[in-house]
Specification:
Number of domains: 2
Order of helices and strands: EEHEEHEEHEHHEEHEHHEEEEH
CATH architecture of the largest domain: 2-Layer Sandwich
CATH superfamily of the largest domain: TruD, catalytic domain
Helix content: 25-40%
CATH topology of the largest domain: Pseudouridine synthase
Length: 342
């Protein structure tokens, strides 16, 4: 997983089991920020699919309706080896949504759950999060009892908001390839993907350093905190903001390094500077690579955790905010880093 953080449930026995043995074992449903209004220039199609990436669906929709890529939108990227329910927007002035949905079902073989019009394009990040229902196939015979103990621990403490293995590629070397681009710059979607993997790896380094200091999930002087509804802000009154952190209103945020990133201050800034310096990259190199940077919530609280025993194993259901990875939560249950990077 490119993350050496210890499990928050390390002292509890794992459930075992494998994920994504087949697409129907891994069910993902987007949680939208809003529902379409029923009128407007864009048609929203909520599509259920298996065995296709988000890019595959975007390409197929563009080809079917003869639309350029800029006329099609989605809120997030979803796993290929999963049963996914995801919304797409099409900038088409004519045609009833039901007619467009029928074409998608008839010509692309995809199931359309909902179809309606809306005023604006669906853009990346326009979602609250995702609901997951995952089968841990072949889990231990007493997996339900083990899983309940782990779920209780996660509900009590939460866990680090690490990136899943898919962020680092099937071979796990995307971050190293991204690091090489600072010496041999390239442009395009592939370069952006590799550079983002390098950013993610450095975020993991920061998480590990912070955890080793005993300062997760609590705040430290100079932190930039993040509210769960999005905004970030400088921590000025540490005692007052720590009380809000305990109440789960806010969490500390960590660096996704870039030339435009909002840096922490005081002791928190010193830690961020140490991590970047250790990587061998400076701010000038970040700017040359075109990395703007941002900040990421450092801690995660899964919602609606529920377990269900089945003859095939153990079903685990939960909800996560956008940008969080289900595999990070599942790692706590199966007690293995050998989770799929697909």
């Amino acid at each position: 997983m490119n993350c050496a953080l210890p499990l928050v449930s390390a002292d509890l026995p794992g459930t075992g089991g494998a994920i994504k043995t087949q697409p129907s074992d891994f069910v993902v449903e987007e949680l939208p920020v809003y529902l379409p209004s029923g009128s407007g220039e864009h048609v929203y199609l909520t599509i259920e699919r298996e065995g296709l990436t988000t890019r595959d669906v975007l390409h197929s929709l563009g080809k079917l309706f003869k639309l350029p890529s800029r006329a099609i939108g989605s809120a997030g990227m979803k796993d290929k080896h999963a049963r996914t329910t995801q919304s797409f927007s099409l900038h088409v002035h004519k045609g009833e949504p039901a007619e467009l949905a029928a074409r998608v079902e008839g010509e692309l073989g995809l199931r359309v759950v909902r179809a309606s019009r809306h005023e604006n394009k669906l853009r990346m990040g326009h979602l609250l999060g995702n609901r997951f229902r995952v089968l841990l196939r072949g889990a231990q015979a007493d997996a339900l009892a083990r899983g309940q103990a782990i779920a209780a621990r996660l509900g009590e403490r939460g866990l680090p908001n690490a990136f899943g293995p898919q962020r680092f590629g099937a071979s796990g070397d995307n971050a190293a390839r991204g690091r090489a681009l600072f010496e041999n710059p390239k442009s395009g979607w592939s370069a952006e993907l590799l550079l983002s993997a390098w950013q993610s790896e450095q975020f993991h380094v920061w998480l590990e350093r912070r955890h080793a200091l005993g300062l997760l999930p609590q705040l430290m002087p100079g932190d930039v905190a993040k509210r769960f509804d999005g905004p970030i802000f400088d921590v000025e009154d540490l005692a007052a903001e720590e009380a809000r952190r305990v109440a789960r209103e806010i969490v500390p945020s960590g660096p996704l390094f870039g030339s435009e990133m909002r840096w922490a201050k005081a002791e928190a800034l010193a830690l961020e500077r140490e991590v970047l310096a250790a990587s061998g990259i400076d701010e000038a190199a970040l700017a040359r690579a075109g990395l703007g940077g941002t900040r990421r919530a450092a801690w995660l609280y899964p919602a609606a955790l529920a377990l269900e025993a089945a003859p095939e194993g153990l079903w685990v259901a939960f909800e996560l905010p956008k940008g969080a990875y289900a595999t990070v939560v599942l790692r706590e249950f199966v007690k293995s880093d050998a989770l799929s990077a697909d």
